[in-house]
């Protein structure tokens, strides 16, 4: 699939920083590719954080991406930093 604008929402904004939420059936390893969020280059700024639910159609993962760079319309985010740990009980 690809980035869908309807799945990116603002959660909070303060002092030039935006906290976003994004949900997608795409795997986190696809979402973190440079250029995935190019369609939102006019919205995302370096340092913004994106809380994400990825792999919703298969193997779900949740965590945070950080916008590492946004230059000339090309957005690059960090790898997904997952929330929580596996339940071993």
Summarize the structure.
By secondary structure, the chain is mainly beta. Helix content is 4%, strand content 42%. Strands 1, 2, 3, 4, 5 and 6 form a six-stranded mixed sheet that branches.
Topology readout:
Blueprint lengths: L7 E7 L2 E7 L4 H4 L17 E6 L6 E11 L2 E4 L3 E2 L7
Parallel strand pairs: 2-3
Antiparallel strand pairs: 1-2, 3-4, 4-5, 4-6
List the main descriptive attributes of the protein structure presented here.
89 residues; mainly beta; six-stranded mixed β-sheet
Query: What is the first-to-last residue Cα distance?
Result: 35 Å
Give the overall pLDDT as a whole number.
Answer: 95
Whole-number count of domains: 1
Largest sheet: 6 strands, mixed
Low-pLDDT segments, ≥5 res: none
Coarse structural class: mainly beta
Helical fraction equals: under 10%
Gyration radius over CA: 13 Å
**Order of helical and strand elements:** EEHEEEE
From the spread of the alpha carbons, the general shape counts as globular
The share of residues in extended strands comes to 35-45%
**Count of DSSP-assigned helices:** 1
**Beta strands, count:** 6
Describe, in plain words, how this protein is organized in 3D:
The chain has one domain (5-82). α1 (28-31) links the parallel β2 (17-23) and β3. The longest helix has 4 residues, at 28-31. It is built from 1 helix and 6 strands. The protein is mainly beta. It is 4% helix and 42% strand. It starts with 7 loop residues before the first strand and ends in a 7-residue tail after the last strand. The chain is globular. The mean pLDDT is 95.
